[in-house]
Amino acid sequence: MYSWMKNVRQVEPYVPGEQPKCTDLIKLNTNECPYPPAPGVEKKLKEFKVDCLRLYPDPEASVLTSAIADYYQVKQEEVFVGVGSDDVLGTAFLTFFNSEKPILFPNITYSFYPVWASLYGIPYETPKLKEDFTIRKEDYFKENGGIVIANPNAPTGLEAPLSVIEEIVAKNPDVVVIVDEAYVDFGASSAYPLVEKYDNLLVVQTFSKSRAMAGMRIGFAIGNSKLIACMNAVKFSYNSYTMNQTTLALGVEAIKDDTYFKETLSKIMATRERSKKELKELGFSFPDSRTNFIFASHKKVKAKKIFEYLKSKNIFVRYFNQPLIDNYLRITIGTEEEMDRLFANLHAFLDE
Amino acid sequence: MYSWMKNVRQVEPYVPGEQPKCTDLIKLNTNECPYPPAPGVEKKLKEFKVDCLRLYPDPEASVLTSAIADYYQVKQEEVFVGVGSDDVLGTAFLTFFNSEKPILFPNITYSFYPVWASLYGIPYETPKLKEDFTIRKEDYFKENGGIVIANPNAPTGLEAPLSVIEEIVAKNPDVVVIVDEAYVDFGASSAYPLVEKYDNLLVVQTFSKSRAMAGMRIGFAIGNSKLIACMNAVKFSYNSYTMNQTTLALGVEAIKDDTYFKETLSKIMATRERSKKELKELGFSFPDSRTNFIFASHKKVKAKKIFEYLKSKNIFVRYFNQPLIDNYLRITIGTEEEMDRLFANLHAFLDE
Question: Which CATH number fits domain B39-256: 3.60.15.10, 3.30.530.20, 3.40.720.10, 3.40.640.10?
Fold first, then answer.
């Protein structure tokens, strides 16, 4: 024991995500896109002028906020960017949740919300989802210090109707409501058009799933320009330069190719719909996913057993050893070929 | 006034650094390297496989921590990396300074230290530098919650002897002592060899200055493996993926080319020594810089006037409108040609 240890911040121990090193594997455990980024990304990378790396990047990330604003037809000052949506969400928690009242988010949702709340000393309550994993909107009508809703929710994959999101935002004009839309592009409805109507709505999205750029770490938020200005003030107060030169250049290319984006999405959604049929035939049940993953439970065989069997076959899906969801597997939608191999292995294991 | 504003975190307003848009300018205001990154960086970029961008980066940044460990001949588990040294320093503050006692850093030093202290609720005291801008080591021998020393110091450019740093570290075994060595490569002595002897020493460096990679945002720390493990635990607890795929790949190339690194440093140091002579002839005085900038004051003409004149000539240096240092200019060492133009303009203005 070192004597300086007494002043060290105590945190929950980190459980690293599985980073299998073998080569012939199927990785369906972290909701990455099975297809490469837009072709413009590669072109831009090859043309990139390395000499500019000696200079600090634009702290305001203007080329990227501008490209995102163009794509979503909002104003540039309504866009905030960060190092993945984790950075954007963390900054939003730090900026907006400085109240004595608890913030609210569902008891089953993205696991980082309680982490950021603890990090920044924010009290929180976690209303229970219904049995079918849907949100009970009335749980969010009581006094609170802010609200966070992942929509579609993780890891369930379920979408709350936009009308429910709007009602929650409308009933809470005195606090900021964050809608975390990491998976919205796979067939769900985004709340971002509502930012013109509600100054307390912050919509957060990411380039990591639908735009195949998990490796570049780009997340963004769309909200009223005053909300965004508050986030920028906080961010600039402690770290001005976070988005590097390559991220800015490649991010622009990833967002501007709408044709490629739509093609990628429709391939993934077609594979997802086919996967739903296959899983049903195999004896799985699951909430109706609007994401690039399916959260599935088998009627007879325990999730953990299936997880371990697949792993032994070099197929990695996600298993959460947690109350309420410990009999579910979160299966990322891969390519058709990857899913073929998954289903063949599931048949071999479950049909015996 | 929006009603959600009451819960918004209050921060010091951000004063953006000057990002002049004109083309024929000389930028000597942010201590960037005037030479490009190592040739291997460009080569790696051209070979980079864009398809990997769809995947999350290695959260442990192993290729980069390994390359840094190789270069400095330390163990990989003694190296921590972050998004610029600001991220590394901020994480170190959050990790190690959880005491009721104040942390200590000089009254003239890097301006982000009080910002991070405030952000994380860390009490702090700022012992005064001597008149000649040197540290009074005895100021750091009293009870405290931690110590941060920039060495060489910013913006003065002055190096404290390694023996003074060692004495401060040795007298404070119960707290972590951070030595921020952003500028150490330009002729100063690094404390990193002392990490084997002192488990409470954390040495922080950056790729932004000497390695010409400000645009990529790479900082790192070297310390006892237990110190580094504490930082990783905190970092992973709230944001696992911060170093993106291109950063990891290009960072490795930037650090492994020692020949190019040494050549760049000796060019910059030669220009600095010549610049000291020129500035002296022009009537400036300055602490003896061991960095890539000179912190200079003119015997007759106010710093602010010189700053404004140079700006009108498209030459940007840094002026701090702050008590104690408001008659100084911080002038980054550029190429020989850039410095020629600087001196010609200074002669035109000061000799008249």
Answer: 3.40.640.10
